[in-house]
Amino acid sequence: MFCFQCEQTAGCTGCTRNAGVCGKKSGTARLQDKLTGALVGLARAVEGNEDQVTKETDALVMEGLFTTITNVNFNDETISALTSRIHAEKDRLVPRCLDCASACGRNDDYDIDSLWDGDEDIRSLKSLILFGIRGVAAYAYHAAVLGYTDEEVNRFFYKALFAIGMDWDTDELLPIVLEVGEINLKCMALLDQANTETFGMPTPTEVPLTVEKGPFIVISGHDMHDLKLLIEQTEGKGINIYTHGEMLPAHAYPELKKFAHLKGNFGTAWQNQQKEFASIPAPVLFTTNCLMPPKPSYADRVFTTEVVSYPGCIHIGENKDFTPVIERALQLGGYKEDQAFTGINGGTKVTTGFSHGAVLSVADKVVDAVKSGKIKHFFLVGGCDGARPGRNYYTEFVKKTPPDTIVLTLACGKYRFNDLDLGTIDGLPRIMDMGQCNDAYSAIQVALALADAFECEVNELPLSMVLSWYEQKAVCILLTLLHLGIKNILLGPTLPAFISPNVLNLLIEKYNIGPITTPDEDMRKLLG
Ligand code: SF4
Ligand code: SF3
């Protein structure tokens, strides 16, 4: 196998053995490559047949891309079935193409090995495109389940997939890399609109980490729609719901927080799940990444839905009947007494909901605090978490931020520090959780509003971005920040294996992006 799409890739170069660090087996990796090759084939078939593309074609592309994100789908059967559906769709667009013996190169599946084995700069640029659109597809998928789609975003998937299959050079590929960032901005705006119009504008909300006695269900991932359905189906059944990982920001949405049995958050970072789920008397439902291979101690309590799948785990299908999860929760019965859990720093609660709506509603206060010198600097410390020991950097960095600075955060990397109490500045908490990774859109909106208020460029604001990455959604967000011309981003804990030295030099020259070093050194550098 060859896979180097995530931050924990073996030896910081690539997973090449029988299984990846994430637990993905070589056979599964092969099937995911075939699936991707089929998607390129579908994009080739779309070329010239655009008028034949339907909502179903778009949905298939989103599903195919999302399925191959790290920690989403480990199930050979569902991956193969999806590939067959993609072939069938290509066959509909270009009938009998699959029966044709002569490879015309126009509608064929793409052999992804020719990408992995190709020139390292081309591989690097095509990887940025492929991994980036996997991330965008996940966000587009979440928006689509709420009934929101964007033609331009959908069309771009075909363009990008087509480009991956072409023998193009750097000059042709680089603009498409940046276009991934541009399209992702549109897609995150779409998802923001979908979430806020469906569930209301998030408001700052305290979330307890205590699990109350009685039956409960833990729900993980990013899909708010699944959470809403689960909340509705458990109402009045004496079952409490606890969020996990990227589901935490759900507590801040008015249309979700109004349910009294959405009680709190369970667990710390996603990479601790094998330890934390081992002994809980409750089922866990995964709606998206990050699913780790379940240990035998709790595998029979893990349920999946949407594109997530793991062999042997019960999958909740399109009918969205969560009865098996509900019955398991009642059967397990939960704790006999309330259990007071803490975050990794010992905190008993966390706060979320500082979306662009919440922060910009007190924009005057923020601007005044900056003008009067009470706030000297903003740090955006956000992104994915992961198991690499070097990720303690982010905890240490946040602990070292001076008292006259604000830490904006988002995505699951915040579990390293979101239970810290850093106090307030003029009533504004020093740590503000803006939400999930896609709520990078909120951070961008706030940065643009501050630049507007101070009549300067975003790069001239007293704002530093110290980002952590793990999977492919982080790739598209990073490309969005580059598309917006944001400079001086610090990225860690290691740089992507798929960025070749030449491509890295290009990013350094144009955007001055760099790796994190030590909290002290970076703090000194950023505060000048
Ligand atoms: Fe390795 Fe990451 Fe690929 Fe899993 S997703 S096989 S850990 S590079
Ligand atoms: Fe985390 Fe897996 Fe990326 Fe949405 S849940 S950010 S790593």
UniProtKB/TrEMBL annotation:
Pfam families: Prismane. The keyword Metal-binding applies. It catalyses: A + NH4(+) + H2O = hydroxylamine + AH2 + H(+). Binds 1 hybrid [4Fe-2O-2S] cluster. The modification Cysteine persulfide is found at C384. One of its GO terms (biological process) is response to hydrogen peroxide. Belongs to the HCP family. PANTHER family: HYDROXYLAMINE REDUCTASE. NCBIfam families: hybrid_clust, PRK05290.1. This is Hydroxylamine reductase. The lineage of its organism: Bacteria, Bacillati, Bacillota, Clostridia, Peptostreptococcales. The gene is hcp.
